[in-house]
Amino acid sequence: MLSDQCVLLSSIFPFLEPPFLRPPPAVRRVPPRFSIPPTNHEVMPGGSVNLTCVAVGAPMPYVKWTTGDVELTKEDEMPIGRNVLELTNIRQSANYTCVAMSSLGMIETTAQITVKALPKSPTSLIVTETTATSVTLTWDSGNPEPVSYYVIQYRPKLSDNGFQEVDGVASTRYSIGGLSPYSEYEFRVMAVNNIGRGPPSGSVDTRTSEQAPSSPPLHVQARMLSSSTMLVQWKPPEEPNGQIRGYRVYYTEDLQAPLSTWQKHNTDYSELTTISGLTPDITYSLRVLGFTSVGDGPPSDVLQVKTQQGVPAQPAGFEAEAELDTRIMLTWLWPVQDPIIKFELTYWEADSGNKQHVTFDPAGSYAVEGLKPDTLYKFSLAARSEMGLGVYTQPIEARTAQSTPSAPPQEVHLLSLSSTSIKVSWTAPPAASRHGNIVRYSLAYQAAAGEDTERHEVPDIAADATSHTLDGLEKWTEYQVWVRAHTDVGPGPESPAARIRTKEDVPGAPPRRVEAEAVNSTALKVTWKPPLASKQHGQIRGYQVVYSRLENGEPRGQPVILDVALPEAQVLSCVCVCVCVCVCIWVGPLSPFVTAPQVLSIVCVCVWVCVCVFGSVPCPLCDSSTGTRLLCVCLCVCVCVFGSS
């Protein structure tokens, strides 16, 4: 009967069924599948990669790797669920298969590893076109697969420098410009893919086309063989741009005439010639140019020669170069076979007509000393022989190097803006004393007394500035200020010290040692010391005594003010009743109060001692006749007087 009841209850209320009567739960079985399959990779030769394969299922499957017929995972080391294949030093492409297996089946997936090789070198590189300044190249790719782009490398054939490059060339034909005329170059090409650059192609050499010379013949010199025959010599142009076919010598008696009207003497590629049939005892001007098969180059500078035998020709190759801020070095070519006994030099400032003359023994150079810094000079040179003075060269120019300024900034003025700031203004040094471009200014300042008497610097002030404000200074303190200008070479001298005092300010402390003493039943004597000098922040003008009755330790009623103005240059430190110190700006802190000892009557008085200064805030010590206003800093003193009255 009991068992029937149990069955009945369990059928009505299943949750009351005993556990031993319940059937076991069903187990879910899932065949294997890949949750993270391996992916394909591209690697460089010798590269490395990790292939990860993850499979799930119920039961969890075993995972292994194979490639072709080769088992890469040992059977007794086969992991469950996840297997990572580490590949190193990969040299060839291959397929790798991940196999997952359980009692419910086996699945597999394959990852492809591709060894991506660098591109091969391009082939069939040839030159298809040349000009004086450009070369056109064509080539074949040499690669079965597309490349990203090409790189062209080139350099002068005889150069020891590295190759120049043209990057990102998208086609197999390209023109390179900016080359030198009539110069031999070496070219090569390389292909680039997403792995990197391949090896270069074979080199091809070519020479650019000719062009007219771009520079004149060098070192042109001349001398008279007789009064009517001239020998002219020169060196080839520095930039011939081709094969020099010959030279043309232009000469004339009229320097101002256009070159096309000058007489012309043609010669072959030799570097000297003689010109006959000249007029004696006059000055000829001559110029020389070279030409190629393409055209004429520029003519040389004018060289002047006197048709007088034995008189030196004009010095050739005359050049000037600044060596120091006060020295310029002059150099020239020695005249050919001329008996020089002296050289005569004339020089002057470019903006002045005051010429200086110097004579010196034969040489190929001369240093002009004692010049002004950063100044443009002009120079002209002539050679002298026993037969007379030759022709002066055309003036050449050179500027001496910059130097430091020789004079300080001018008109240095100081203006006190507040109790802690000063404005400094100035003008630039005189133009003749700057010796270069002013690139910045600097300031130095120093307190004459006080807590900080160190010298301070403001190093970098703009070159176009004419003023600067110094902040954070001490109050009511005298300062010295210096200004100097700087060029790229360095600083100039400091200006004379300018002096100014910062403005007065509220005293930083009340009177010290305030003491009160009962004189009798109706009078008190109050004494004190002035604030410390460093805290006065101005000139003490007077004191103010403020007092009131003290009841139960607290002041009662309106305080009574006693003003004590100081005569000029007087320091007050004692007054009967109450006191206050006067300086020059506005009211400062009150001093603490002091209580006097017992004497007669029981009257308590609170006394404040104040420091007063001139300022813009009204004060009882105002001088109505002059409009002067005083301000105060106070110290409170309380005094009780005891007595019978």
From TrEMBL:
It is a single-pass membrane protein. One of its GO terms (cellular component) is membrane. Pfam families: fn3, Ig_3. Its EC number is 3.1.3.48. SMART domains: FN3 (SM00060), IG (SM00409), IGc2 (SM00408). Keywords: Disulfide bond, Glycoprotein, Hydrolase, Immunoglobulin domain, Membrane, Protein phosphatase, Receptor, Repeat, Signal, Transmembrane, Transmembrane helix. Residues 121-212, 216-310, 314-403, 408-505, 510-610 form the Fibronectin type-III domain. It is an enzyme of class 3 (hydrolase). Residues 203-213 have a biased composition (Polar residues). Residues 198-217 are annotated as: Disordered. It catalyses: O-phospho-L-tyrosyl-[protein] + H2O = L-tyrosyl-[protein] + phosphate. Residues 32-114 form the Ig-like domain. GO terms for molecular function: protein tyrosine phosphatase activity. It comes from the Eukaryota. Its main location: membrane. It is found in: Membrane. PANTHER family: FIBRONECTIN TYPE-III DOMAIN-CONTAINING PROTEIN (PTHR13817:SF73), TITIN (PTHR13817). Belongs to the protein-tyrosine phosphatase family. Receptor class 2A subfamily. This is protein-tyrosine-phosphatase. It comes from Coilia grayii (Gray's grenadier anchovy).
